Amino acid sequence: MTDPFAGWSVPPVGITGSPLDRADHLRRDPGAMVALRSRPDARWLVLDELKPVLTQGDPANILWAYRSDVPHDAVSVFLGLDGEAPRFAAAASGADLVADFGGRIVDARAAASLLGDGRAEIIAQARSLLDWHARHKFCAVCGGQTVLNKAGYARTCQACSAEHFPRTDPVVIMLAVKGDHALVGRQPGFPKRFYSALAGFVEPGESLEEAVARELHEEAGIRVNRVRYLASQPWPFPSSLMIAAFAEATGFEITLDDDELEEARWVTKDEVRAALTGTGEWFAPPPMAIAHTLLKAWVEN
User: Which is the CATH superfamily of the domain at 169-300?
Assistant: First the structure.
């Protein structure tokens, strides 16, 4: 049987390509962390209620703060090394950075769109870690208080010594294709005329391919044969990993789950090209979203 996805290329994926070396070997060394924090070239990305502080003007950039600009009691995590220069993130007020350095506090999604390169992944890393620490102050084993450990990549219970580590939730996002058509849908909360690839969380004891097939059948009544992985993307809202795939549909008939989707439709490559350029009758996801990558890959292959 001919593989309909053989040889397909992968367009650029948003929120990837961080320039930082995460330097895992340094996280486990408290002495090394003290030394890194004390270096004159150490800098902090400040997130105010999980919103990063960026520079003013165009083009935008991360406003890297000095250690003296970050409260000593702020939750702080190690991001990695930019060359030899240490980079951290801290949960703190950005008001002083706005007043003293002309910074601006920006929603993380908007920041990812403004930066549009590996710096967006730095924000994703920082946001996911700091959000996880805010949510896991107590032990899931005994209920005792936990403290930050391993430079931000673990928490340890003070009562029972259990270690807890940040988790990433896998989400499949898939484009069902049949012939010259692909399936897109819209959830009830989407903006008007906005359509995207279908998506859903991977369930316990389930492979990625099984999750793709299950979600397409549950949400749109579509059965599939072959499933082909395309690419993945961190999605820090709060801590998902989007896993993009194509699926070979066996038929066109749609049976909609009204709780999940408001509408689903089969579209042509010409319609998708128009949507990606903003000239169509419906809107496609922005370039930072991996759904955009899926649609672009389909029309280019």
Answer: Nucleoside Triphosphate Pyrophosphohydrolase (3.90.79.10)
Euclidean distance between CA atoms 10 and 19, whole angstroms: 20
C-alpha pair distances (Å), 133 with each of 109, 238, 263 = 20, 12, 37
Of residues 66, 68, 88, the one with CA closest to residue 76: 88
Q: Where are the alpha helices (DSSP H) in 75-142?
A: 95-101, 108-115, 118-135
**pTM of the predicted structure, to 2 decimals:** 0.93
User: What is the C-alpha separation between 257 and 184, in angstroms, rounded?
Assistant: 14
Strand order of the sheet with strand 154-157? 146-149, 154-157, 163-164
Question: Which residue type, as a one-letter code, is found at position 34?
Answer: V
Please indicate whether the domains covering 24-135 and 169-300 agree at the CATH topology level: yes
What residue segments make up the domains of the chain, in order of their start?
Answer: 24-135, 169-300
> Distances in Å between the alpha carbon of 33 and those of 39, 68, 109?
10, 17, 30
Q: Tell me which architecture the domain covering 24-135 has in CATH.
A: Alpha-Beta Complex (3.90)
CA 111 – CA 114 distance, rounded (Å) = 5
pLDDT (tens digit per residue) in 192-242:
999 999 999 999 999 999 999 999 999 999 999 999 999 999 999 999 999
Q: Is 86 in contact with 35 (CB distance < 8 Å)?
A: no
C-alpha dihedral (65, 123, 80, 239), degrees to nearest 10: 140
pLDDT digits (tens, 9 = 90+) for 56-69: 988 999 999 999 99
What pLDDT digit, counting tens, does each position of 232-244 carry?
A: 999 999 999 999 9
Q: Enumerate residues 6+ apart whose C-beta is below 8 A from 215.
A: 172, 174, 198, 199, 200
SS3 190: coil
**Residue 192 DSSP label:** T
